[in-house]
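Sanity check. The docking grid for fe (iii) ion depends on where the pocket ends up, so I'm generating a full predicted complex first rather than guessing from homology. Inputs follow.
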Amino acid sequence: MTQPLDILTETPSQTAGPYVHIGCIPTFAGVEGVYPEDLGLSPISDGARGEVITIRGSVYDGTGWALRDAMMESWQPDAAGLFPGQDGADPKVSGFCRFAADKDSGEFTLRTVKPGPVPLRHGGLQAPHIALWIVARGINIGLSTRIYFEDEDNSGDMLLNRIEQRPRADTLIARKTGEGEYRFDIRLQGEGETVFLDM
Amino acid sequence: MSETAPLMPRRREVHPVPYDPDYKTSVVRSPKQALLSLESTLIEETGPVFGHDLLGPLDNNLIYNFTQGAAPAVGERIRVHGRVLDETGRAVPNTLVEVWQANAGGRYRHVKDTYFAPLDPNFGGCGRTITDENGYYEFMTIRPGAYPWPNRANDWRPMHIHFSIFGSGFGQRLISQMYFQGDPLIDLCPIVNTIKDRGQIDRLVAPLDMQNSRGMDYIAYKFDIVLRGRRQTMFENKPEGM
Ligand SMILES: [Fe+3]
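Predicted complex below; grid placement will be based on this.
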């Protein structure tokens, strides 16, 4: 016999289901008046430092169909790479956003500031990135990925360099489509499948 | 600085399988490639913070929050309460817990729910609260009805409440569902059965808690939640990765 480890087990996930909006963004579901406004409407407020950008995309299933029911959350630092609560962080950047695929087209839009690079625990910098979490009916445990940017220097990024099949790293890089505009599509399964993270 | 200590790796075997043909929608929505597993970094170890000032007085009372106190929802009055802990057994204080559910007839107030059970004009179906300094939370609500759903020809969801929990780091983010002790539909549900470990399914089934019920008012169910923990160590001087 040994001493017990006394480590608890995480509660198992269950799918967010098709009605996740009721709980997380009730106005989108048609539930009005319970809260003054939905949580996480924008990750920035007026006057946030840095470049304001818009990222558009869709979440595609294994048949190439864009999900109409996906809900996403993003989390990021400010333009200087500082998270809320860190010394000197931009008070106009909450860093957190919730958004849904459009009910008709499946397209989502994230308007934010471009994040700065973030240090690693033991030195070195990670290329600018936004964390993205995706839930929907049929997704049994939320999927985590990252948005990097085509017009940044991603060559030294620890995570991107750990992807063995180099073309797959491109699935994490938003394409520049115009001034301050990017495209980031997510493919849940099959050809061009997005790299999902376990971190 | 414990707020940014590395997260314990997620034990994927305690979670549902992503691909399960009995839950048909998962067939085309489950990644086929392996996940990329790495030690957590700052973006997973930090997360949004929500203050208690976010909350309105009825936010955790689903019986009354849709009408802002004017009229109660129809259904069996229940209280759901419990604690949010992490894998190390420590309370997770000041963390946002959101819930959503069907009404007593099994109908959701959602533009896409077309089940012919009636809407309750006094029930919205969402609520939220923030854990106290000991990780404790509670809701008042009505017992949600079971409902049929398009999967196999005759699949029914057991009575359930959806839960969304944040934790202190974005990598702890979790959405799950609470079931009710004794519901015979639990064992038949393909969504429940995406979890292959019977013991893990049991952890989603809230026991009837008569000691915390109130006579002539409500019955209680207890539902504790465990989030990923953070590693405790002074040895953090090794280079990352390779
Ligand atoms: Fe449900």
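Relevant for the grid: Residues 56-227 of chain B form a domain with the Protocatechuate 3,4-Dioxygenase, subunit A fold (CATH 2.60.130.10).
Also worth noting: The pocket of fe (iii) ion is lined by residues A 17, 19; B 157, 160, 162 (CB under 6 Å).
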